[in-house]
Amino acid sequence: MDNQRDNTLLRSIAMISKILALLMVVFFSIVFIGELLNHTQPFGIEEYLLLFFIPDLFAVGAIIAFKKEVIGSIVMISSLIIFNILSYIFEQTISDFDFAIFLIPSVLLLFVNYRKNKKDIKK
Fold first, then answer.
1. DSSP states along 8-38
2. Distances (CA, A) of 23 to 62, 76, 89, 94, 98
3. Residue with more model confidence, 33 or 8
4. Cα separation, 77 vs 54, whole angstroms
5. What is the pLDDT at residue 36?
6. What Cα–Cα distance (Å) separates residue 88 from each residue in 21, 29, 53, 85, 102?
7. Extents of the domains making up the chain
8. Residue 34 pLDDT more than 70?
9. Buried b (16+ CB within 10 A) or exposed e, 31-59
10. Confidence of residue 1 (pLDDT cuts 50, 70, 90)
11. Do 121 and 84 meet the contact criterion of CB atoms below 8 Å apart?
12. CB atoms within 10 A of CB 92
């Protein structure tokens, strides 16, 4: 019974983190559309690169996470790391911990995968 409860809890955490990742993609989309509508100057190559790594690559990772949790998590984490590297190169600033909240679904999915693998080894 305890094993079944653990499996249900892990599946619930995985589904919540996948939904959270998709909600973040919706948030990125709304911000992106608002930025396009309100932006008075044309985007430079720097802005396009930064916009590619956060909303686009993160969205790809969120979609991949529905089938392959670990690969999707790695893509989402990589998008945030690459965004911060490019942000530092282009603007000499690293985004504060504002973007750290976007790591939550990735970390939860990696945790779920770790627990599933740990349970498989014990059997």
1. HHHHHHHHHHHHHHHHHHHHHHHHHHHHHHH
2. 10, 14, 29, 24, 16
3. 8
4. 10
5. 73
6. 25, 23, 14, 5, 18
7. 2-122
8. yes
9. eeeeeeeeeeeeeeeeeebbbebbbebbb
10. very low
11. no
12. 7
CA distance 110 to 71: 9
Report field, pTM of the whole predicted structure over 0.90: no
Question: Which of 1-10, 35-44, 68-77 is most confident?
Answer: 68-77
Helices 104-122, 69-91: axis angle to 10 degrees equals 150
With CA atoms as reference, report the closest residue to 57 among 45, 71, 44, 43: 71
Q: Are 52 and 96 in contact (CB under 8 A)?
A: no
Question: Does position 97 have pLDDT exceeding 70, yes or no?
Answer: no
Amino acid at 87: S
Q: pLDDT digit string (tens) for 46-85?
A: 777 777 777 788 888 988 988 898 999 999 999 888 888 8
